[in-house]
Amino acid sequence: SHSAGALPVDLTAANADLAVGCGYKYLNGGPGAPAFAFVAGRHQAALDQPLSGWMGHARPFDFATAYAPAAGTDRLLCGTPPVLSLAALDAALEVWDQVDMAAVRAKSMALTTLFADLVPRRVPELVLASPRDAMARGSQVSFRHPQGYAIVQALIARGVIGDFRAPDLLRFGFAPLYLRHVDVWDAVAHLGAVMQHREWDRPAFQQRAAVT
């Protein structure tokens, strides 16, 4: 989920058995985008899918009472897929046919490094929680602060969308395809203003919602 679309991944070369991911993060499929799965070829014939469904049947339009799994990864399908969500993801994936993943990774590291460098200068009370070395992190940067949740809410009100993870993490993702370096500078400026004026201390930003 946090690798696809952010850095080069070669599951076959890594000798991976199974992998799952989502289409809504760096692949830009939007909320509700379908997930995806990888099954090494050596496992596909014997793979047992516990959530067997009509679309994963070898001959779905035979309407047989006994279940026979489809060949390969098709057996992972369950019911009818969300067609509108698939259409949105399909359009998003078309962009990736013309993208050099090495260039994506390079820009990702440049954006995250800039953010990790600028925030401590502007807001020294935030503590870097992500690795300092860009090669040791993905396309996101996290900082720690006791008022992390409220700070994130104040930033969202300013149009800077991050998220919070308990107990004290402010998490910021960087989508290299469309985020610019100037966006990083602007985000840090907003973060500085939130802290300088204690905007996070407003009662509305202190109330925890279900989604953080």
List keywords for this structure.
212 residues; alpha+beta; two-stranded antiparallel ribbon; 31% helix
Written overview of the protein:
With 212 residues, this protein is of the alpha+beta class. The two termini are 18 Å apart. It is elongated and about 65 Å long. It contains 5 helices and 6 strands; from the N terminus they run E-E-H-H-E-E-H-E-E-H-H. The relative contact order is 0.13. The chain has a 4-stranded antiparallel β-sheet. A two-stranded antiparallel sheet has the order 1-2. Strand 5 and strand 6 form a beta hairpin.
In terms of topology, how is this protein built?
Blueprint: E1 18-22, E2 35-39, H1 83-96, H2 101-122, E3 127-128, E4 140-144, H3 148-157, E5 163-165, E6 169-173, H4 181-196, H5 203-206
Antiparallel strand pairs: 1-2, 3-4, 4-6, 5-6
Helix pairs in contact: 2-4
Unreliable spans: none
Overall SS class: alpha+beta
Strand share of the residues? 5-15%
Tell me the series of helices and strands, N- to C-terminal.
Answer: EEHHEEHEEHH
Query: So how many helices?
Result: 5
- As a percent range, the share of helical residues equals 25-40%
